[in-house]
Design a protein that fits this description.
About 40% of the residues lie in helices and about 15% in strands. The protein has seven helices and seven strands; from the N terminus they run E-E-H-E-E-H-H-H-H-H-E-E-E-H. Strands 2-1-7-6-5 form a five-stranded antiparallel β-sheet, sandwiched between helices. It has a two-stranded antiparallel sheet with strand order 3-4. A hairpin with a 5-residue loop joins strand 1 and strand 2. Helix 1 (about 25-40) runs antiparallel to helix 2 (about 75-85), helix 1 (about 25-40) crosses helix 4 and helix 2 packs across helix 3. The radius of gyration is 17 Å and the shape is globular. The relative contact order is 0.17.
Amino acid sequence: YIEALNSGANISYNQDYRYYPASLIKMPVAIATVKMIEDGKWHWDDKLVIFDEDLDTGFGNVGENPIGTRMTIEELLKELLTKSDNTAYKMLLRNLGTGPVNDFLVNAGLDNFFDKELNITAKEYTRLFRSLYTSSYLTREYSQRILIWLSESERNYLGQGIPENVVYSHKFGENVEEYIFADSGIVYLENRPYLITVLYKADPNESREEIDDFFKKISQTTYDYFYNFNLK
């Protein structure tokens, strides 16, 4: 799903087909956490404790710390958004609960974001990023803080097709066992910013190089179109 932010014009393919979100599932938790801070219920320097049930070294390094380690909410959010840290995500969700996450989805108009199996669509996920861009749920200050952290995330998947000097705020996800690969974000092309979300279920026989090439080609084609688009 691809959308020009200035006009709302969009193009898509299978935009309503549902996929397992992999690490894209972490974004609603991050946004709900920041809302708690915005509302004064939590603070950036509040500390949470690592429990045994939180430990998960599949992504990120927080899980390498001993049980009982205390980390600030700001540290955990940064690890979640820049490195997709699994342990940070589990710590925040455990302390947050599902209530604030559901409140975000309802108040942001994302009632159909998840189905019963927590699968997502490319179109609905793109709306999550639009809510950050327009500051329609969080204030501009807090929305921008999330987007800045996301711009520091690894330049993988769709980021491979975007020039390094162009800011790309995005969340990536992968579940190798299920052959699910995903990326979603905002490309801050001057005067022509756009949203792009790609959810891809690969064939078991595809190599990682072929998957990377698939994402890169989509991203390059999209970027070239917007870059060369005649604003007049």
